[in-house]
Amino acid sequence: MDATKFGERSVNQMPTVLKVLLLIAAALAIPIIPFVIWGHSLQQAADAWEQTQASPIVMAMGLFGLLAFDVFLPVPSSLVNTIAGARLGLFAGSLVCFTGLSVGAAIGFGLAKMAGPAIKKRWLEEADIATLRTFAERWGVALLVVTRALPILAEAAVVLLGVQGLSWRKFWPPVLLANAGIAIAYAALGQIAADQEWLVIALAIAAGFPLLLTFWARKWLRKRHEERVV
């Protein structure tokens, strides 16, 4: 395929893909609003964690549940992963986080695949469907990897590609690989923070770093799109 034509197709795809992705992200972000307004501070969260006397098994089950149903709940997964490492240690914390993140992604993806035909028929034009199909085939795997560590956008990407009908065979490798890296990184941060007694700082880092990544990703995508249009 001619490189110029490929670039033109990419430019034409980006507005539709970004529009749908941001709409999904906005819908998923709605439940978070009350928690942003009335949520506890990181210091209070750290104090509550220190006072918790639950057994490691109960803690593991609770953290797993939060991550597994992340697509439905306003759960800051980076904070959950960090607490898992602090409370359960690197190995067990990473395992719980990896399993929870993977199950959560599978639930969102599976439900989106089942609802995909109805959603496309109700909300999307034929041209948008064709554009999303082409984008999913070419960039779906990369989108899953890039957005895995980004709040809201990670779930939005999973739902978007599920609606479009990306195969499970293409879904699992990038998701499992990215989840493994995320789980290990945050669990290690949590364990180190617990050992050095600076959990509050670690929670602040875990909460702020994904937001910075999201801001940078949006800025980079916008710049790339403007350069291609010009």
From TrEMBL:
Protein family per UniProt: Belongs to the TVP38/TMEM64 family.
Major subcellular site: membrane
Residues annotated as transmembrane: 20-37, 57-76, 88-112, 141-163, 175-192, 198-217
All residue ranges annotated as the VTT domain in the record: 75-191
Identification of the protein by name: TVP38/TMEM64 family membrane protein
Membrane topology designation: Multi-pass membrane protein
Family matches, as InterPro entries: TMEM64, VTT_dom
Location(s) in or outside the cell: Cell membrane
Keywords: Cell membrane, Membrane, Transmembrane, Transmembrane helix
GO CC annotation, single: plasma membrane
